[in-house]
Amino acid sequence: MMKIETLKKAGIAGLAGLATLAASAGTALAAAPKFDTGDTAWMITSSALVLMMTIPGLALFYGGMVRKKNVLATLAQSFGATCIITVLWMIIGYSIAFTTNPNAGTNAWIGGFGYLFLAPMGLDAVNSGLAPTIPESVYMFFQMTFAIITPALIAGSLADRMKFSAFMWFMSLWLLFVYCPIAHWVWGGGWLGAMGALDYAGGTVVHLNAGTAALVTCLVLGKRIGLGHENMSPHNLVLSVIGASLLWVGWFGFNAGSAVHADHNAGMAAAATQIATAAAALAWMFAEWIVAKKPSVLAMISGAVAGLVAITPASGYVDPVGALIIGIAAGVACYISSVWVKKAIGYDDSLDAWGVHGVGGALGAMMTGMFAKNAINSGAKGWLIDGNGHQMLIQFYDVAAVFVYCGIMTFIILKVIDMIVGLRVSPEVEVEGLDINLHGETVHD
Amino acid sequence: MMKIETLKKAGIAGLAGLATLAASAGTALAAAPKFDTGDTAWMITSSALVLMMTIPGLALFYGGMVRKKNVLATLAQSFGATCIITVLWMIIGYSIAFTTNPNAGTNAWIGGFGYLFLAPMGLDAVNSGLAPTIPESVYMFFQMTFAIITPALIAGSLADRMKFSAFMWFMSLWLLFVYCPIAHWVWGGGWLGAMGALDYAGGTVVHLNAGTAALVTCLVLGKRIGLGHENMSPHNLVLSVIGASLLWVGWFGFNAGSAVHADHNAGMAAAATQIATAAAALAWMFAEWIVAKKPSVLAMISGAVAGLVAITPASGYVDPVGALIIGIAAGVACYISSVWVKKAIGYDDSLDAWGVHGVGGALGAMMTGMFAKNAINSGAKGWLIDGNGHQMLIQFYDVAAVFVYCGIMTFIILKVIDMIVGLRVSPEVEVEGLDINLHGETVHD
Amino acid sequence: MMKIETLKKAGIAGLAGLATLAASAGTALAAAPKFDTGDTAWMITSSALVLMMTIPGLALFYGGMVRKKNVLATLAQSFGATCIITVLWMIIGYSIAFTTNPNAGTNAWIGGFGYLFLAPMGLDAVNSGLAPTIPESVYMFFQMTFAIITPALIAGSLADRMKFSAFMWFMSLWLLFVYCPIAHWVWGGGWLGAMGALDYAGGTVVHLNAGTAALVTCLVLGKRIGLGHENMSPHNLVLSVIGASLLWVGWFGFNAGSAVHADHNAGMAAAATQIATAAAALAWMFAEWIVAKKPSVLAMISGAVAGLVAITPASGYVDPVGALIIGIAAGVACYISSVWVKKAIGYDDSLDAWGVHGVGGALGAMMTGMFAKNAINSGAKGWLIDGNGHQMLIQFYDVAAVFVYCGIMTFIILKVIDMIVGLRVSPEVEVEGLDINLHGETVHD
Amino acid sequence: MKLITAIIKPFKLDEVRESLSALGVQGMTVTEVKGYGRQKGHTEIYRGAEYAVSFLPKLKIEVAVKSEMLDAVIDAITTKAKTGQIGDGKIFVTPLEQVVRIRTGETDGDAL
Amino acid sequence: MKLITAIIKPFKLDEVRESLSALGVQGMTVTEVKGYGRQKGHTEIYRGAEYAVSFLPKLKIEVAVKSEMLDAVIDAITTKAKTGQIGDGKIFVTPLEQVVRIRTGETDGDAL
Amino acid sequence: MKLITAIIKPFKLDEVRESLSALGVQGMTVTEVKGYGRQKGHTEIYRGAEYAVSFLPKLKIEVAVKSEMLDAVIDAITTKAKTGQIGDGKIFVTPLEQVVRIRTGETDGDAL
Ligand SMILES: Nc1ncnc2c1ncn2[C@@H]1O[C@H](COP(=O)(O)OP(=O)(O)O)[C@@H](O)[C@H]1O
Ligand SMILES: Nc1ncnc2c1ncn2[C@@H]1O[C@H](COP(=O)(O)OP(=O)(O)O)[C@@H](O)[C@H]1O
Ligand SMILES: Nc1ncnc2c1ncn2[C@@H]1O[C@H](COP(=O)(O)OP(=O)(O)O)[C@@H](O)[C@H]1O
Fold first, then answer.
1. Which residues in C lie closer than 8 A to residue D49 (C-beta atoms)?
2. pTM
3. F69 alpha carbon to ligand 1 midpoint, in Å?
4. Disulfide engineering: C388 pairs with which of B117, B392, C141, C381, CB 3.0-4.6 Å?
5. ipTM of the predicted structure?
């Protein structure tokens, strides 16, 4: 996000920056702020792209990987999360995550409560700190799409066995008690951002966060019945390939959109994203080709997603070569975590939400500290290129804070839901399939 | 659309408005108008998004709901409609819908004939009344995508039983004799717009219009063979979920694009669209969960579409809270019409084109009158917030005019086609499936 | 591309042009070039759209047409090509295709080597000759998406029988030795562009080029086992319709994006693209309806792609009527080549990559010469409207040069790969299916 | 006991099932099959070329019955599955030596 | 020789197959079928209306065995496929007059 | 009459069908099945782990014939379906007591 950047800029530079923006967007003195049409066009487009990542992108990526009897239930999770989170974000989420709390001390931890139901958000409203050149309606919507996909990603580890009612509760509580605070800490004016943590588009806020929650969830839920002897390979990778492709395409709204301007930062972020993703897909594919003797389609698309995840925090800070290295590292690391570590430890992270998003997000956050380049983003100074080793420590704090807070809160939330509605479906339902039992529908063929 | 707005503005304000636009788009005096690159970028993007709503969006939404033997024929309807309408729009549609008829009296009813084959549309042409800051080529294309999806929506009620040849005739005649006139009445400078009807993106012009035609069509065609005892539940909801998701994503081009600028109106329309859609999806889902004891995937996606439909006329006029209320109302109303009313009355609106688009469009048009807010759109004054009760009457005229004109014309068109080529396939063909019989193709598995 | 245009403009006009652009983008004197946010927004969007054409667009278009046992392998080809080409483009492709070679003579044939690993591409870098108003990072990415889809198109003729390892080698070598040079010749400052060849978005560079390679490849590979007596009709046209639709939608990034500005040229290109595509789809559909008595879905989508291909070189140069004529011609010509000529000559162009892209690309290039209109694009003078018959000769040289060079190089590359890794899978593997044998995966049902 | 195997046109299934239930037949097993016979298949179009699909979708119904019910069941199937058009299908009767109900281990008559 | 045809619940396949291999049965043929019987089917929801799906997914296992193995095999299937709930399925035994192994032309006992 | 049931490799269907038609066999019923036997199955890769798929796709052909045609048909199938590799499949012959053509009610010989 722009934030860090602006934060770090010396006052004058900062003003200058805003001035230029204002200038290029018309007179800044008009009663109503004059927005930049190019930035606005790009940010509405980005919001639509990020929404597309969840529905149908993520829905298909996950839906193709489960067994056929659970495909509709898996789609229902992404779609249902999209709906419930949209409404909660409008009611309170945006307010506590992206508005400033009147009490400066409190603001380090949580935003204000003045934006409930977006009541104050008029036609000309602008979030001057975070998105000075576009209407706040657009920025609120853009951030909403991030708030939607983050919890939805968790579904990868609980696939095939969670109640739909419990899932909807989980999405709601997790959004309010985990995502909103953390988003505020890093992007909304909270303590991690102030500390200088670099997270361009959500390596820790989105991916490590969702990945950690996924890990906790699969541990709490336990393994799927039949794991090990039953064939649980993806029932239809065609769906997963469509999903991965739409995630890739939509991710430009995610990373380049995080520039909050249609400018050179957005362009560089887009280039870095493309390069890292392709490199990671090849890395995972070749790793499997060498080990398992065949380059599976699942390896390619999993690698691509791993690359997208790892470049997310770095996208606006690194140059093409940095992106290439991060991509290769992500492909190999996530391959190892999803294939070897999981088997070794033996938790049932069904679709590797932790293996890809958790590991990839943490790796990306640390490598952002390594490869961030001041020449690419004046708001950042990295270790290897700019010699700012201290950034590594900040990045580590960021990773640790998200991992610990998310882990504990997720555990508590799940236990509460388990007591009230119960988390897991009955064995009969699990064996027979969620589609017909939870939703009364099946895919005919 | 901007139109109403500009119409209503007092001369000065109006000029001022245009001035600002011109300003932000460079000198207005240059021989060739200088277009705003941000607005142009957004409107080309919007056009592509709206095209995506029909192919593959609507094609899949409908295709997944029919029985497997008819899935290709259903896709062929959306795809064929897209092609034939594109050509007819270029030949005459745009001219009679969106250009001004030299005779002011006639212009209240139909546009001019000077734009046949778009002959006068040069590189620098601009439709100064409706889209002052973008090339007319873009505006013509944007409106074309609306002209494509509206007739295509009708296919929902005639699924599984209409001849392809008859369908192509139907699309063509309906476009020219129903859609083009009505689009001109409301948006192109005709009498409904002049009267002050508020229809931001097509609650009456698009959805009520298509829904009414759908109702008439299923009544004329009669029920599908086997309705009632044969299982006609969707053969593959995975396709329908992809379709609904792409409709949702594309709809930002539809509603926010109707601002014809990348500005605060577009932003507010996008926010309202997202909120109403999610609210409606939840409303329908919970309604069914309560009644049928299970939250079906079909309920979620049908509700989402109902919300998109109902917010369409209101999107640029209401605030987030208004959008939330409209969404909830739409979800419940369309659930009742599609599930209970249909069963009670007993017409075979196969995929609920009337139940969702007709009912949702009419409801949205009326609720636009209720919740329109002058602070959100200077071109509108609604009942509840601005105390302009008279608007409700105007909205009602709009709804009634579209319902009556469309109903009668659709009936006549269908009867003519029935005489010439025949509307319905033979019982053998219907029982055995349209794919193999009409198109000589099947989905292998 | 803009290139020709700028080339041809007299110096002053050129400067004026740039001046205006600069102006509309803020002060041109600033140390760092001030980019146009609207143009930048549109070009990032266009790049994402073109990427979407390949994954999932092309992947599904092809994947639905093969037999079910090969669907995953077909998707793997598009996805794998995307990854390997992205990395190669970053390492060397962009440098040799779109940067200027210090040696003017050499530059006619190949670009420079100064951009390896995009090292010199800083935050504010700009390719002033080809994309003056956007960051070079964006232009590099936009061109990358073209470099990805072109080789990927070839997969249509080698479907069902090529080794994956050989395929990845083929994509890599073909990109470097065929695509990059030809792209430089026409767009990058090479001899064909200098000669005045008109190829707005890639009729010869992309489609004739890929089509020619496809023809050579299927001749070298030989026919599929069982061709003629075994049913090789598409296993799932639903996938192909999704693919064709996304190709259509994405193609606006391809053609309108080739304006490299969000301006009237982009708008006119978008309009022309839409019109030609629909006309071609109808032409092919009616041709088949007349001959085979049924309008198949495959006919509609193949025709649409044929229209998209043929309008590609013409899109920025012709008016709507020209587009309509080109579309009709393309639909009929590609129908004849794919259905009759192929059968007559008897090569096994599995999915008609030559029949559609080769024939359509060449036809489009020649018809661009016929219908190019100076009033639409100041950089072009065509035969029929502007009376510049000489353009036809230039277009012919362009077609001939690409056909001959690509044909010979492709043949050599294939022979080399055949010697080293072997091109074709064993008969057992081909009969049993590529999915399980090459990738160890199948679609369960 | 006898095992009756009938090949019928798919859309006739419901009628047949109902008439068998009426006879007191408590169960049956249905399989999707492809049939080849006198009935001409369809022609698929592909790139303008026609391809004859000689196998048509049919349903195979297997019903195990006590010998005394044989004729009644054959009769019910024939009347319900008949359309009079070519392709209505066949009924095959094979001897059934033993039947076991897995759940209870009951055999023969009791297992049906 | 006998042809044993068993209708079982799908998720029981692996267990049954293993126990048959244990008995030395070298092969079997499995078909996805839909079963109708005492076990109640599911209800699909469609537009809020419930639709009863009376046919349930089952697997049909066909095993050709030498007569002397008959009881052992029936026994193995019954024990492995049993859940005790309605719908466990049936076993049918029909006489088998001849068997040929296509690859070798071997017949009867040697062909199994 | 006899009911001949052959399990063959899928891509052999056309050849077999043609040779049977040549013999004057007027119809047959084909089912997609999964076969388990000596032929080793494939291994699917999933997250780098290999999973053995022991069931292979086969086709089951059922042909009802007059007893006198039995040998000719068995012969035709064996020759056409043979590749010599493990997994070519089997032919099973069971007695057929009765045949009815649904369309006409014809029985036995006339029904074939
Ligand atoms: N000799 C046979 N053996 C097995 N199945 C057969 C045989 N003859 C026909 N059938 C099955 O019966 C179906 C209908 O037979 P067909 O000859 O098409 O019409 P009809 O039943 O009216 O004679 C075929 O599709 C096939 O499935
Ligand atoms: N008479 C029959 N003929 C053929 N198959 C039968 C018959 N009765 C039952 N089946 C098969 O056995 C399955 C289980 O039978 P069902 O009556 O549901 O439970 P149970 O096996 O416990 O009696 C059915 O789904 C059906 O496939
Ligand atoms: N005892 C059996 N009962 C039923 N089907 C069998 C039996 N043995 C083999 N089959 C079927 O025959 C197919 C081929 O058998 P297999 O042992 O693999 O090779 P081969 O036919 O060369 O001996 C198997 O896939 C299975 O479908």
1. 292, 339, 343
2. 0.94
3. 17
4. C381
5. 0.94
